[in-house]
Design goal:
Chain A is α/β, with parallel strands linked by helices. Chain A has one domain: ComB-like (putative 2-phosphosulfolactate phosphatase), CATH 3.90.1560.10. Chain A is 36% helix and 20% strand. Chain A has ten helices and ten strands. Chain A has a four-stranded parallel β-sheet with strand order 1-8-2-7, sandwiched between helices. In chain A, strands 3-6-4-5 form a four-stranded mixed β-sheet. A two-stranded antiparallel ribbon of chain A has the order 9-10. The radius of gyration of chain A is 17 Å and the shape is globular. The first copy, chain A, starts with 11 loop residues before the first strand and ends with a strand. The interface between A and B is medium-sized, with 29 and 29 residues.
Chain lengths: 247, 247
């Protein structure tokens, strides 16, 4: 197994589509950060902040239904909307109430849970969003492993908001001399974040998913998801579910 | 078949890896621009400028050998170097002599010919490089079709120089009101080009492939490939080969 020695340069790459994950995933010995800013990974961070015990991500509606039949609380989103017959979708505002405290939640979304599914063989898989940006960076610096920032994108296409979050992580880690040898994908993401950081919302004004959510009257969700460092925890995937490691 | 009506908005997307091409290629009715700035597509443009009649791109060394046995002039590059036993690699400077005038050349490269191979089912496939930037943009405006800018990348990974060229094309076409609805991938590429355009070479100073070529003493090739608008033609793929359509 490839190991990272103390003092070695650490590699950070951005994988802009779940479909490219096999290209970037060359060794188990890395941390994969799954990113779906609008809205799955923002919702997951919010849920743990509000006391959810465990989130079981599943890739398909069929699996979600099986859990529902067993009595689980199940969230299902496709194309920005709650799937009929399920308790909730992926709006962060659905994960703030008393009724979810201490609960296990099963979750399937258009992009985010697909990205988790593809990357779950990695040594460590964590959940990133602007809400827990600083906690994610601290986790990565402590882990001292190579990093793959996996953008959930939109149906395997590149998207802007996930790329910006990847850029924010690299921007923060680039002060650490162990991460100086940046991959091209990381250089690009860092430059984009540099352009956008003073007003993420304005920069995303013409992005496709922001407009998709705007059409669905989800402006409140967008603004919520673009806040930085409001949540100080890092959800980690272990076994078949996400748990929290309070930073 | 999906058709583009006069007056419709045209879609431009950047596909950052040949491995993602099936995700972006939703309809045959589009122009695919294959981009491998360092150096395959720059070399192809140069070859046609110097009178090559036809270039047959092949994906594997085995196919290249078969052509060689039939007496063809064959160019083969892997990892930046000429493959042993072949006439030339993909340095543009190999495609400037009298000996190639009027010839058919067979070409296989690490990334560029792989990208052509994956995209050749498209209605129109053309070759883009900074050298023929303006000619490519004129071709696209005349074609009035949706556009996929296909970055050859590096072994299916994202790379910076191909993304910058994609951004240069979008930057130019964005003045045309038919292309206003830009995909996220296009917005990102255009921003990057905006940051880099005044000094492409400096912007690419830390990019991985530029440094790979620098280690191989190919600085002269790098500087050559970053010139804009020195070649006024567009190589087009038809049948199994590239030809020239003088712009």
């Amino acid at each position: 197994m490839e190991t990272v020695e103390i003092g070695d340069q650490l590699r950070i790459e951005v994988c802009y589509s779940p479909a490219l994950f096999p290209v970037y995933y060359q060794s188990k010995n890395c941390v994969v950060v799954v990113i779906d800013v609008f809205r799955a990974t923002s919702a997951i961070c919010t849920a743990f902040q509000h006391g959810v015990k465990e989130i079981i991500p599943v890739a398909t509606i069929e699996e979600a239904k099986e859990y529902q039949e067993k009595g689980y609380l199940v969230a299902a989103e496709r194309n920005g909307e709650v799937v009929e017959g399920f308790d909730m979708g992926n709006s962060p505002f659905s994960y703030m109430g008393e009724e979810i405290k201490g609960k296990k939640i099963v979750l399937t979304t258009t992009n985010g849970t697909n990205a988790i599914e593809r990357a779950k063989a990695a040594d460590q898989l964590i959940i990133g969003s602007f809400l827990n940006l600083k906690a994610v960076c601290s986790f990565l610096e402590a882990a001292q492993k190579n990093v793959i920032l996996l953008c959930a994108g939109w149906r395997d296409r590149y998207n802007l908001e996930d790329s910006l979050f990847a850029g924010a992580v690299i921007h923060s880690l680039s002060n650490n001399p162990r991460y100086t040898g940046l991959a091209d994908s990381s250089i690009a993401a860092m430059h984009l974040y540099g352009l956008a950081k003073y007003d993420l919302s304005a920069f995303l004004a013409s992005s496709s998913h922001r407009n998709r959510l705007k059409r669905l009257n989800l402006e409140r969700d967008i603004n919520y998801c673009l806040q930085e460092n409001t949540i100080d925890l890092v959800p980690i995937f272990e076994g078949n579910a996400l748990f929290v490691n309070r930073a």
